[in-house]
Amino acid sequence: MSARFDSFNPERDHCTSHGVEGWFLMIHNISNTSSVRRYCLVAVGDPNGDSFIDVQGMKQTRSVLNSLFSGALAGAVAKTAVAPLDRTKIIFQVSSNRFSAKEAYRLIYRTYLKDGFLSLWRGNSATMVRVIPYAAIQFCAHEQYKRLLGGYYGFQGKVLPPVPRLLAGSLAGTTAAMLTYPLDVVRARMAVTPKEMYSNILHVFARISQEEGIKTLFRGFTPTILGVVPYAGLSFFTYETLKKLHAERTGRPHPYSYERLTFGACAGLIGQSASYPLDVVRRRMQTAGVTGHTYGTIFGTMREIVSEEGFIRGLYKGLSMNWVKGPIAVGISFTTFDLTQILLKKLLLQI
């Protein structure tokens, strides 16, 4: 190992120090490279090359942090934009009242008259507490799963084939849902109850734990996971596929912002339509403690909904509102993530 840098010449190999006292060393200039991993190493403050930092690892860490920040911002912006519609949808999902656009408008208007404009965003603080880590984890996990699957299938740095593309999205959604699920229960409770019942997020956690037990924070977990697999899988799959087709037909690797919004809207429409009945089931199970119902299993909940309200009007209640809300939210989310990623990369290049 002592002779590993014998063939290295800073001037010949065009190595420079970028803001630090060190050299960028390229391993491919070193003899016997078959036994050496191909890394770009930085010698910081050590011209003899005795201490090194793995630049590849640094780049990977920076990529993860960029994805986490971009995902968090994307989720926050998207959910805040559609919060009134989302709250209205949840209220109808957990009740036996018949849904219509007219009734949804009346509910929004009555809420505004009774409690004021900001009341339309009631529960949005809980939504932010949930959606920021959820979106951050989901987008970051998606990038990592794409990288891992790309390496496994030999498509590193390229668009994945259809099946791995679908799998990456499903795994990302499942990972995020598993890690943030109790926050989703809290958000649903705050959305369907009067503000006098729960004063803040911590109060929701405390009351549920004391009155209904810790297990209640995971009620509806199974239908959530079963629903997020097709939802996240189809959403990411559709968005990535549309970007791929766009690049092939136009020759532009980066779509315009309005094109990203359109691709995201299509992704949201397809993903949410495919998983919507399970979304209704999980909301019923999550809010059972405050609606007077007792839901034990997924199929038992479905059977009760269908017997009381009908198949379409029960399991697809609020879907038309979701066709308005969902595409807007998903479109904003994907677009914000992509544009933030591009902006961060440009900023880092200038540092």
Automatic annotation (TrEMBL):
Belongs to the mitochondrial carrier (TC 2.A.29) family. GO terms for biological process: transmembrane transport. It is a multi-pass membrane protein. Mitochondrial carrier mediating the transport of coenzyme A (CoA) in mitochondria in exchange for intramitochondrial (deoxy)adenine nucleotides and adenosine 3',5'-diphosphate. InterPro entries: GDC-like (IPR002167), MCP (IPR002067), MCP_dom_sf (IPR023395), MCP_transmembrane (IPR018108). One of its GO terms (cellular component) is mitochondrial inner membrane. Pfam families: Mito_carr (PF00153). Keywords: Membrane, Mitochondrion, Mitochondrion inner membrane, Repeat, Transmembrane, Transmembrane helix, Transport. This is Mitochondrial coenzyme A transporter SLC25A42. It catalyses: 3'-dephospho-CoA(in) + ADP(out) = 3'-dephospho-CoA(out) + ADP(in); AMP(in) + ADP(out) = AMP(out) + ADP(in); adenosine 3',5'-bisphosphate(in) + ADP(out) = adenosine 3',5'-bisphosphate(out) + ADP(in); dADP(in) + ADP(out) = dADP(out) + ADP(in). Solcar repeats lie at residues 62-148, 160-245, 255-343. The gene is SLC25A42. It comes from Oryzias sinensis (Chinese medaka). It comes from the Eukaryota. It is found in: Mitochondrion inner membrane.
